[in-house]
Amino acid sequence: MLFEKYFGLEQKTIAIRGKRNDFRAQLNKNIMADVANKYSDNVGGKFYVDDQCIDCDLCRETAPANFKRNDDGGHSYVYKQAESPEEEALCQEAMDGCPVEAIGNDA
Ligand code: SF4
User: Fold this and answer.
1) Among 100, 101, 105, which residue has the most ligand 1 atoms within 8 Å of its CB, making it the best to mutate?
2) Top-level CATH class of 35-105?
3) How far away, in angstroms, is 50 Cα from ligand 1 center?
4) pLDDT under 70 in the chain at which residues?
């Protein structure tokens, strides 16, 4: 009896986790940076910022050697691609931390 109750709960938990993961995958698909929507002031190369940027400043704080603010547009852009492993790591950190997934890596 107890085992069946536990097993039932276990099955429900697995089903809920599956739905949660599907939802997360859908969410990521919808908000992932899109190279088709990248700002034209991004310098050429793999990292870019697209038009979902909400100008929160996180990327400029995290990787100031690579991200700058477009003051007229009120958004960030990549003004220099990463040129060292350290800069690469910081750009990746900025990308991972961007709250709206506006930073893409087109590598
Ligand atoms: S972290 Fe993302 S939302 Fe914030 S300024 Fe940079 S690109 Fe824009």
Assistant:
1) 100
2) alpha beta
3) 9
4) 1, 3, 13, 20-30
